Give the backbone structure.
Amino acid sequence: MKKVLTTLIAGAALLTLAACSSSTSKSSSDDKTVTFHALNGEVKVPANPKRIAVQNYPDEVASLGSNVVGTDSWAYPNPFLTKNQKKNMIDLGAPKFNLEKLIAQSPDLIITVDKDQVADYEKIAPTVLVNYKKLSGMNQSLDYFAKLLNRETEKENFLKSFKKTAAAQKAKLEKVDIKPSENTISLLELQGDKIYAFGDNFARGGQALTTGLGFKQSKKMAELSKGTGYAEVNAESLAAFDADYLFVDFAEKDKAQFAALENNPAWKNLKAVKEGHVVTMDYDKVYFFGGPTASQKELSLYTDAIINATK
């Protein structure tokens, strides 16, 4: 009985959503729409959307100056977005959006990576399903969202600002004789008793370090960037990820694990370790946040960390 009641309530909620959506569409029928080719087909979207709910990519949308009214629980804590960028943004839940909260935000465009929810979201507003595997870096994601949101000028302005910031940080590194273009990196993360390695497209400072500062990826890191984006590894297999610089992020609660790793003979034998080129980062600041604004602000974060770690 409980399951039946829950189903009825959910169905009623979606009918209400559809009604709200129809009303919204009618009231804005004079607004221009364009056809956008998305993973879920040809979608008629507002030419200039005003209220956007987006999974996974609030940074990209906000970096282009668009108004984000909601995102998922994982992306919402992004510490690099400004108060202005987050002024209308609420936490809509994860992994799926809470439908009641979503409706209350009256989005005129929904962007999702969850194909199973598209049908429900389409009852509320035009919905674009994103193929996240094809948005492998900052430039690709900015190109995609600038096209979707009609924000080409904003994209160009952001990239100019990003390049200017990156140039200033590279100059700081070169003053202490660190030339990113001549050095390789690998990205590692500790979570409990597990070790993970990452490509440059899975946050963890990847875009700041490569697209921004110009570091080269180690061979194994480059393989991850072209593939799954990450892999679980063990201490003995870290030799494959050795590089001129190793970046390791972990939470405060995992400090003991890093201390244990430092005592592991396999770790001690790594080139970056021997040369004092291990840079530790705060997991809570870098683990999930790799969008354009986050990457721009991480430029100085990583530059300072590199300089402090290698004095």
